[in-house]
Amino acid sequence: MAAEIKSGTVLDRIVEARRAAIAHRKKSVPETVLRFGVKQSLPVRDFGAALGRDSLNVIAELKKASPSRGLIRADFDPVALAKSLEIVGAAAISVLTEEEFFQGELKHMRDARAAIGLPLLRKEVIVDAWQGWAARATNADYFLLVVG
């Protein structure tokens, strides 16, 4: 869904776009469906333990684009990137899933999680509790509240 608001800060535009997108998604996927999906989801990987290792603990990020820089990586392959980050010692992976401004997708997170053993954090502009249920229903181990 394209952001309709053209004034205000970039963050204002992102929040408005997320509100519109989530309102649309809630019509096709009600929260009750997501709650059922959470019951079927994979077990949560231990984020605290991953960050409590006796070593340098880095949360690496998979991000295709940003509002300020535009496209960061044209050859974005979340599975290959997640595997390489796991190999070099990342403790956990943060996956940006916001579509319009960061060119993220839930599929990036699901695919990365299936390919590695590290905990995954869904990084998203959260404007509705529905998104928390969606994060867990799609096997995010955790999600990061970026904006309330």
Would you kindly provide a written description of the structure presented here, covering whatever features stand out?
The structure is a single chain. Helices cover 43% and strands 15% of the residues. It has 6 helices and 6 strands. The chain has a 4-stranded parallel sheet. The chain has a two-stranded antiparallel sheet with strand order 2-3. The longest helix is centred in the N-terminal third of the chain and has 19 residues, at 10-28. 32% of the residues are buried. The model has no long low-confidence stretch (mean pLDDT 90).
Trace the largest sheet across and list its strands. Answer: 1-4-5-6
Which class of secondary structure composition applies to the elements? alpha/beta
State the distance separating the first and last CA atoms: 20 Å
Integer average pLDDT? 90
Helix percentage range: 40-55%
Radius of gyration: 16 Å
Number of strands: 6
What is the helix/strand order? HHHEEEHEHEHE
Strand content: 5-15%
Unreliable stretches (pLDDT < 50, length at least 5) are none
Instruction: Please give the largest β-sheet.
Output: 4 strands, parallel
Q: Helical stretch count? A: 6
Shape estimate: globular
